[in-house]
């Protein structure tokens, strides 16, 4: 047994992947180990399984160990790789001190018997596809040594797709399954959007970039745009209205890929290929201020495998050139992965060192959701390459991306203006109501104020309030400040001006706009906007997302996808007019309200003065009352008072008393008699006895309000 191989596990059908497995033991147990029931599960799992993936924005890494090839079986190669469970694996390798093993953990580990359908679900690919339909950029790339199963994983037995009788296959790879899934989804979705799929296919061969759909020897240029990052302006992007259209793109692209044959793989890819499906989602109701056109996409990257000439036994200049070019670009990819994984501030990431890393910039440390499928052979013969692959895969796990929804900047701007108009309109109707009612409680927030606060909070929580920014000239600075919480740093300049700072972004072609873009025709840039459809397992956007979104909003500019510039300009002008109109109207209503407030204040002051006067009068009355009660000559005072105020009453009383021949009683008794119906609280009571329940004292306590005092005064006047 060669040093480093796993004891008793030479490769052969049914003998891969279980440590210490006796020769001839069936591999089914080992093979089924990596996939727990829920990992094998398909649609009904809700999130399509893969609960093991952390909810964060890091690149997800899944390792797939392929079954042994005929050659490996014939050579009775030993098995060096074992998948322990859904997330762990170990590799046995020789060292100078003797055999050793190393354990690895990934987001997913797929054993050799995993099916192509398992890959789709275990890797959470359906979630990535859903995310692409919701406006995210997603990248799936296969990495590994030559012959390790990258092309099989991505494309299946690709040669079959072009056949006349092709109708799907159990060996279908991720790309064809993804195309099917996307068409199924857009047929099923009832979310207020219409979807259009477009596709491009290119390859990087010997550091040259070629279009696989319009295959010519003409190399395509990779350009840099501060808004879009690296992109390929002349890449053909074909509109795919049906699954059949998409299959044609796939088979045509695959057919044009440069393949070669060598010792390790009879059909070895000699290039890195990138197939991209663009998912444009246009809102059905363009008036909905929350919706704008979203530009999601998903890229499938099948990398050429690293190879050693002594292993491939390739000869000839062209083979040497191919191998060295493949290895060089993979070496740069390794450096990029290492730099990003180290995550040291200010550290240079050498994206520009190869076309591959330029085009993968968005996927590695950028704004895309990314999945790396690291493929490896189970054979001890290739253990060195396997260890190298797994060590890169381990590093890649540390790469943090900041995904956000990609939306046309002008759509975002229109959406923001429409939201502003909506808020102004509610404020307007609120102010009108208040003016009509002539009262506005001070300190109460108007709908606009609270609406803005709410809008800001939800925008920030959702993802990327910055993306909603109005450029200067849209609304007043106050309005912008209210909308953006005072931080104007993420306001983009006025539309049409190229912006976008240094956001890492790489569009693998004219990612938006009509399928056949003219080279000179610019394409809209991605702009982050709030979205509530954030993919779950690939991580909800974090504050970093918002920051990046804000950064993104700082710079971009190009024409809108799907909407003509004239239409856009009209929409913007209309929204702007409305904002200005409502702003003016609301200013006027606010000032009317202010005047009403002042008038109200004056009335309140008058009212308060009247109450004070009532208080003074009440004091006087009380002192008069007590003087009256204590006075020895109270009867004469009463007679005097009655004479002045109630002469008729006094006359009637006197005549009645004289008729009855009665002696004059105590004036108080008389007053009680003559008072027709003393009202509660009337201040007449005997000085000798306690006051009745409805006395002045109780009245005083009850009548704190001036209103009551006024009533008391009226009663007293009546009695007098
Ligand atoms: N999971 C698998 N199940 C069955 N066969 C597989 C599997 N993975 C790979 N193979 C087979 O192994 C061989 C090599 O696979 P493939 O061509 O996909 O490797 P590769 O990594 O793309 O190599 P290269 O970098 O040279 O293009 C092919 O014959 C393929 O059919």
Automatic annotation (TrEMBL):
Record's GO cellular component terms = microtubule; microtubule associated complex
The cross-references to PROSITE patterns, in alphabetical order and at most eight, read:
KINESIN_MOTOR_1 (PS00411), KINESIN_MOTOR_2 (PS50067)
- What residues does the Kinesin motor domain cover? 58-399
Pfam families reported in the protein's UniProt record: Kinesin
Q: Where is this region: Disordered?
A: 1-58, 463-532, 667-720
The coiled-coil regions, if any, are 572-627
Q: InterPro entries from the entry?
A: Kinesin-like_fam (IPR027640), Kinesin_motor_CS (IPR019821), Kinesin_motor_dom (IPR001752), Kinesin_motor_dom_sf (IPR036961), P-loop_NTPase (IPR027417)
Q: Where is the composition biased (Low complexity)?
A: 519-532
Q: Which residues bind ATP?
A: 144-151
Top-level taxon? Eukaryota
Keywords associated with the record: ATP-binding, Coiled coil, Microtubule, Motor protein, Nucleotide-binding
Gene Ontology molecular-function annotations: ATP binding; microtubule binding; microtubule motor activity
GO BP annotations of the record are: microtubule-based movement; mitotic spindle organization; spindle elongation
Write out the similarity annotation.
Belongs to the TRAFAC class myosin-kinesin ATPase superfamily. Kinesin family.
User: By what name is this protein known?
Assistant: Kinesin-like protein
**Originating species:** Apatococcus fuscideae
């Amino acid at each position: 047994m060669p040093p480093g191989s796993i004891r008793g596990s030479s490769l052969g059908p049914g003998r891969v992947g279980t440590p210490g497995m006796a020769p001839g033991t069936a591999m089914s147990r080992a093979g089924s180990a990596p996939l727990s029931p829920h990992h094998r599960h398909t649609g009904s799992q809700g999130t399509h399984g893969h609960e093991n993936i952390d909810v964060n924005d890091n690149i997800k890494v899944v390792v797939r160990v392929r079954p042994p090839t005929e050659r490996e079986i014939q050579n009775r190669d030993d098995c060096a790789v074992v998948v322990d469970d859904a997330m762990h694996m170990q590799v046995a390798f020789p060292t100078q001190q003797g055999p050793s093993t190393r354990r690895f953990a990934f987001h997913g580990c797929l054993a050799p018997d995993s099916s192509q359908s398992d890959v789709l679900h275990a890797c959470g690919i359906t979630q990535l596809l859903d995310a692409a339909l919701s406006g995210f950029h997603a990248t799936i790339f296969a990495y590994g040594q030559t012959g390790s199963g990258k092309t099989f994983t991505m494309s299946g037995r690709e040669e079959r797709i072009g056949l006349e009788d092709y109708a799907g296959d159990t060996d279908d790879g991720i790309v064809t399954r993804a195309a099917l899934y996307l068409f199924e989804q857009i047929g099923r979705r009832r979310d207020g959007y219409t979807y259009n799929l477009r596709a491009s296919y290119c390859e990087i061969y010997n550091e040259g970039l070629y279009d696989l759909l319009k295959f010519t020897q003409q190399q395509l240029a990779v350009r840099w745009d501060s808004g879009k990052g690296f992109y390929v302006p002349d890449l053909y992007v074909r509109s795919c209205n049906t699954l059949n259209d998409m299959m044609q793109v796939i088979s045509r692209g695959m057919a044009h890929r440069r393949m070669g044959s060598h010792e390790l793989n009879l059909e070895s890819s000699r290039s890195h290929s990138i197939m991209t499906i663009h998912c444009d989602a246009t809102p059905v109701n363009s008036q909905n201020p929350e919706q704008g056109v979203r530009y999601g996409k998903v890229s499938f990257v099948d990398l050429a495998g690293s190879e050693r000439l002594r292993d491939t036994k390739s000869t000839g200049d062209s083979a040497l050139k191919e191998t060295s070019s493949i290895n060089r670009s993979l070496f740069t990819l390794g450096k990029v992965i290492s730099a990003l994984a180290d995550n040291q501030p200010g550290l240079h990431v050498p994206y520009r060192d190869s076309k591959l890393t330029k085009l993968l910039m968005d996927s590695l440390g950028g704004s895309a959701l990314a999945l790396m499928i690291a493929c490896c052979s189970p054979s001890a013969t290739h253990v060195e390459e396997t260890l190298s692959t797994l060590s890169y895969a381990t590093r890649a796990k540390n790469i943090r991306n900041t995904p956000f929804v990609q939306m046309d900047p002008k759509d975002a701007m229109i959406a923001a203006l429409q939201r502003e108009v909506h808020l102004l309109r509610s404020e307007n109707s609120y102010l009108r109501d208040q003016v009509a009612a002539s009262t506005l409680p001070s300190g109460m927030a108007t709908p606009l104020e609270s609406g803005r606060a709410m809008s800001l909070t939800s925008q920030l929580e959702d993802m990327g309030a910055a993306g909603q920014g109005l450029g200067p000239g849209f609304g007043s600075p106050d309005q912008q400040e209210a909308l953006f919480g005072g931080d104007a740093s993420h306001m983009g300049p006025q539309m049409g001006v190229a912006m976008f700072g240094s956001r890492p972004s790489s569009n693998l072609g004219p990612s938006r706009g009509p399928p056949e873009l003219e080279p000179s025709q610019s394409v809209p840039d991605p702009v982050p906007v709030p979205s509530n459809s954030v993919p779950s397992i690939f991580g909800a956007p974090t504050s970093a997302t918002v920051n990046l979104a804000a950064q993104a909003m700082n710079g971009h500019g190009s024409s809108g996808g799907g909407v003509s510039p004239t239409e856009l300009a009209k929409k913007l002008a209309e929204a702007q007019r409305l904002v200005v109109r409502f702003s003016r109207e609301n200013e006027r209503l606010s000032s009317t309200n202010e005047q009403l407030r002042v008038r109200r204040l004056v009335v309140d002051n008058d009212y308060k003065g009247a109450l004070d006067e009532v208080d003074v009068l009440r004091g006087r009355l009380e002192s008069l009352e007590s003087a009256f009660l204590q006075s020895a000559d109270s009867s004469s005072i009463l007679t005097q008072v009655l004479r002045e105020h109630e002469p008729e009453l006094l006359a009637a009383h006197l005549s009645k008393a004289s008729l009855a021949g009665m002696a004059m009683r105590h004036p108080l008794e008389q007053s009680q008699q003559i008072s027709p119906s003393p009202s509660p609280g009337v201040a007449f009571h005997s000085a000798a006895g306690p006051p009745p329940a409805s006395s002045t004292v109780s009245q005083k306590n009850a009548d704190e309000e001036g209103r009551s005092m006024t009533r008391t005064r009226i009663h007293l006047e009546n009695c007098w």
